[in-house]
Amino acid sequence: MIKMVIKKLYNDKNKVLIALSVGNILEFYDFALYGLLAPKIAILFFPNNSDLISLILTFSIFTIGFIARPFGALLFGYIGDRYGRSLSLSYSLLLMGIITCLIGILPTYNEIGILAPLFLCILRILQGICMGGEFSGSLILVSELLSNKKHKALYTSVCSAAGVSGWLLAAFIVFISNQFNYISYSWRLPFILSGSTAFVGYFIRQSLNNTEKVLSNLKTKQYNKFSITSLLSQSILPFLIMVCIGGCMGIIFYGQFIFQNTFLTSILKVNTNLALLAIMIGISSYMVFLPIFGWLSDKIGHSNTMMFSAISIMLLSYPIYNCFITKDYIKIILAEVLSGAILALFMGPATYVMTTLFHIRMRYTGVSFGYNVGASLFGGITPTISMLLYQLNLNPMDPFLYLAFAGVLGIFGTYLYQKLGNNLTN
């Protein structure tokens, strides 16, 4: 009965954007919680005489979740290319919600000892697998259905912005739960909440009915089974471009909006609620600027916009960190907003560019795998690398070096895209 009602609500093809956006919100909310609650998780699952060591161990588990993402990309990419995009997206969302809920009811170190971090690690691996096909899969489906000559990056950037609102929602829920720190289980509620909402997202995505356009292409031509060998031998440039896009995005996003929550509060001793509020403002700026710069890049050129952004990232990384270490709240907000704007300038056009790099018969797998290799290889280790850079000299400015490296990746990826040219397989 619920499916029938939802199908009637979403029978208009253009409303696919809404259905995919709802799923993005829920899935990105799930994945964000761990990073935002890292200081609390460090105490509960990795008790140690050194708070710094506890945080490094916590972020190591965060990294492990990212390492699992390329494997999820292969799994859900295969399902998406072989059996339909919406089927893959529906099951990844449902499983993600269930796993996140399990994290919320997981016993802590004081209750079951070493098994607590072990089970947490396993659940984060499963979370990473589910996340592997989510972001890129939704962008592909939007691009295949809604993009036209006039609006290409606009639609994909709107879908991406919806996912960002999931991170914002997670930050808001964590902010609320922080007000009830006197309740021992308050940290669990944001995780448990995802379980019920995941079922709603699942039914909405099931209603998409596997888009006629995608299925007709898949049925008329034999499916090309994806393999690492064929990718590296036949599509090495598209793969490297995807790695650079995923790496650049991952370093900036997880560095400025996830790691900063710990950096500002645990290292710079900024008030917890004020730090989280600044991060929420930064994420909001990224969400708002994404469709604006997506629309702008449709006008002035996707690669030109990406190159300008990548150069800006490299040049402004030092001033951004300089704002953080002043501990001046206005400057911290300015740094977060500037980070969001620069990232949106890169990802606005990149959300469309990445959907054009592979043939439709292997697009889901190729895009998801390349993007998640980059996000895992460079983005997933951002909190850990940033903490280690700080620990080397105990200089809070040192993590700016890794942020600058994101700009290098962006420049290289954009250069390869320009070299590949515009005659890409669609």
UniProtKB/TrEMBL annotation:
GO terms for cellular component: plasma membrane. InterPro entries: MFS, MFS_dom, MFS_trans_sf. Coiled coil: none annotated. Residues 16-422 form the Major facilitator superfamily (MFS) profile domain. It is a multi-pass membrane protein. PANTHER family: SHIKIMATE TRANSPORTER (PTHR43045:SF1). Keywords: Cell membrane, Membrane, Transmembrane, Transmembrane helix, Transport. SUPFAM superfamilies: MFS general substrate transporter. It is found in: Cell inner membrane. This is Major facilitator superfamily (MFS) profile domain-containing protein. Its main location: membrane. The chain crosses the membrane at residues 16-37, 52-79, 91-109, 115-142, 154-175, 187-205, 226-254, 274-296, 303-321, 333-357, 369-393, 399-417. It comes from the Bacteria. One of its GO terms (molecular function) is transmembrane transporter activity. Gene3D superfamilies: MFS general substrate transporter like domains (1.20.1250.20).
